[in-house]
Amino acid sequence: MIPHITDEIKSCIRKVATNVDVVVVEIGGTVGDIEGLPFLEAVRQFKKDVGRENVIYVHLTLVPFIQAAAELKTKATQHSVKELRAIGITPDILLCRTDRYLPPGIKSKIALFCDVEEDAVITAKDVETVYEVPLVFHHEGLDASIVKLLGLPDRPIDLARWEAVVRKVKSPSRETTIGVVGKYVELKDSYKSLSEALAHGGIANEARANVTWVDAEQVERDGPAPHFQGIHGILVPGGFGDRGIEGKIRSIRYARERGVPFFGICLGMQCAVIEFARTVCGLTDANSSEFNPSARHKVIDLLPEQRAVRAKGGTMRLGLYPILLTEGSAASRAYGQGIVQERHRHRFEVNNDYLKDLEKNGLRVSGLWAEKQLVEIIELPDHPWFVAGQFHPELRSRPWEPHPLFAAFIKAALAHGGR
To answer: Is the pLDDT confidence value at 302 over 90?
Structure first.
């Protein structure tokens, strides 16, 4: 083990330990994997560096239920703990991944052979929704064990917020179906934050937002109509590259012409501008310079100061930017305020040279980054709900505080589905 590698890992832990009470460090992978050893060695040393009373080890293990024998098996957990102790780490708490609550006998057995306190053997059971996990852990006493082991003050716990979220997720009063048109749909985790934000929008409306994944390349091949039967709202998310772009543009046209609620995010907004420029403004070869550098009408383009840049590293617009909203717009009504902050991750922008033509034909710019007069939000006033933003609102959505645009989108989808 090379010392400067473990020292660098420990240094990274210390860097995030400013102005906080507790730092949670997650080490992924499986105990014994060679690529994880430097990280495990670093946290082993860390306990000695900062004092044993300031570090606890929580180990996630598996307790499978063997259907044929109709019993829970603890050997996987015992062997995992043995491997961990062999490299010098003795876990203080065991999170036992299983499909049911562990009975007292199983907990006692695990505690005996893994050398932990019985109340530190915690059931990490399968749940219907991830938002139920804090409730299960509280039921099992995980929070009390952590506070006790770290010597932190014991404070009253109020989980009413989580209980309300779980109740709305598990017992919604209505449902809607959203079609998400992407090109990474085979790997659903690519859009994990997006699907969670849609769920949050459902929570805001006490509804379940079901997601139908639509492959943009299949829309190119089949046309949009076969893919949007029974769909109450269409969302086109972010992405990079030209694969599937025409399918996204055709999906947006379908939503615009048929009055289906539409929400575009980042690349989705850029595709909406391209579709509008082509179909409504008559700029038939409108495109983005990302997809077609030789297009005559680059309605989406790099900023002038970036067009000569060849080394692209570190040139994206990243992080929080203020957005000035147009009074009376759908975006302004959703947010309930005039200036908001949103997170960005993109390089191409709406080309302001085409704004007059776009607005003359009915496109409304309802959000701007005032400092550089860059388009942040567009919408169609004559459409039931057609809003798109250059930013990533899903990154700021929380189950107890759903993002306003997702809440408004799901509300519009519910109204469309109830027609």
So the answer is: no
Report if pTM > 0.85.
yes
Rounded CA-CA distance 298/350 in Å is: 9
Q: Where are the beta strands (DSSP E) in 302-397?
A: 317-325, 339-346, 349-350, 364-369, 374-379, 386-389
CATH class entry, domain 3-160? alpha beta
In CATH, the number for domain 176-417 is 3.40.50.880
Confidence at residue 186, expressed as pLDDT on a 0 to 100 scale: 85
Cα distance between residue 381 and residue 362, in whole Å: 8
| Active-site residue identified among 227, 392, 403, 416 | 392
The catalytically annotated residue of 266, 271, 349, 403 is 266
Q: Is-catalytic flag, 392?
A: yes
Instruction: Mark whether 266 is an active-site residue.
Output: yes
Query: Can you tell me the distance from the alpha carbon of 72 to that of 63, in angstroms, rounded to the nearest whole number?
Result: 6
pLDDT at 314: 61
Catalytic: which of 227, 394, 403, 416?
A: 394
- For the chain, the domains span 3-160, 176-417
